[in-house]
Amino acid sequence: MPTNEEEIRTLIERWAGAVHRGDLATVLADHDEDIVMFDVPPPYEGVRGLDGYRQTWPPFFRWQAQGASFEIEELDVTAGDEVAFAYALLRCGTPADLAAAPDNRLRLTLGLRRRAGRWVVSHEHHSFPSVDSTAGPAGPRAAAERELRRLHQRWFDGTAAKDLDALMAAIADDVVSYEHEQPLRYVGVQAVREVCAAGLDAAGDGAVRWDVPDLAILVDGDLAVAWGLNRVELRPAAGPAVDSWSRGTRVFARRDGAWLMVHQHLSYPYDPASGVARTDLAP
Description:
By secondary structure, the chain is of the alpha+beta class. About 30% of the residues lie in helices and about 40% in strands. Helix 3 (about 50-65) packs across helix 5 (about 140-160). The protein is elongated and about 75 Å long.
């Protein structure tokens, strides 16, 4: 029969392997319902509960799909009969990240307890040493990018849920937005809220979906820019479905520790022969 230390080591190695594969079900499998995680990116108070923990992983998997590693290099486990802790160092980063900072490692601490005869993770803490913003696989720039990808995902989820407040949550009060339609610009969060409300209303009782499949993000300190092709799908309860693609650029500023969109620029290409916007194009 394996010792407690051996059981926990197997659990952690299984979890790390699942993270590397992007296997969300296995990543979650041995975690407590009331887990508390202190992650590299915000929120600064940590993530609490299994549902919140679950939501942190899809953006990380998208970043990892660039070819990043997530591999345990050192692991130590200390276990009693009911409570245990473990700490580890992991190689975490893309080949370019690790080439730029070959000695940088993700630090991991886990707190575990035995419930219903099996070990579960109750606390998880990830960190990197504080380094210059240009160094490290998950230094400030990489962490900010993941945070901004999560921000976009909340927008995408809010669109599908027709949750207008969720769409407004990360938009600055003084935002300036260049929308598809006139006027030339919309100034202030209330003006943008009205545009978003009209977009959700256009779906009626049907479904609406928005995402940016090719989302690119560039971060420098407290400023960031994101761009890509917007894909909007409307599925009205009655009438034909509408799918459209357009160009989108969004600028963010970090204010009081939170990223806010301060500018947005949306456009359709136009046919120079007719002067008519081409809303029927697709990549």
